[in-house]
Amino acid sequence: RICRSLSDILFQKTKGNPFFLLEFVQSLKSRGLLQYKSHQKRWVWNEDIIRAEDITDHVLHLLSSKMNSLSDDVQMVLKVMACFGSSTNETVVGYLIESAEYAGVRNGLEGALSDGFIVKDGEGRLQFVHDKVREAAYNL
Known about the structure:
Layout: H1 4-14, H2 18-30, E1 34-37, E2 42-45, H3 47-52, H4 55-68, H5 72-84, E3 87-89, H6 90-98, H7 105-114, E4 118-120, E5 125-128, H8 131-138
Antiparallel strand pairs: 1-2, 3-5, 4-5
């Protein structure tokens, strides 16, 4: 297929991580490196430029920019969770909610989950979807 080479490059760059893949493709599109040509009725791109992209630094910048535009509550929960490492127990977050200083954590947690920065496993643990997401949250 026409896009096979692009999908191979994207997979290599993102290691198949759906979060990074989506962020990377959106970044390519917003910077004009991936364009839809309506008169041709197809997407066009330059494989060499995309292959040369340094996704690690670029994804951190993208994540930082995206996180800086989040609500204060979501930023707070991401920053606090980042201090605990790549995952934390849901009961720890429950204790924080009881504190007046961290009252917005409940709303922030819901936002962080719905925005796809963290996931909840079946054992009551909250974890970042990727180490780079945690790194960007820690640097907020």
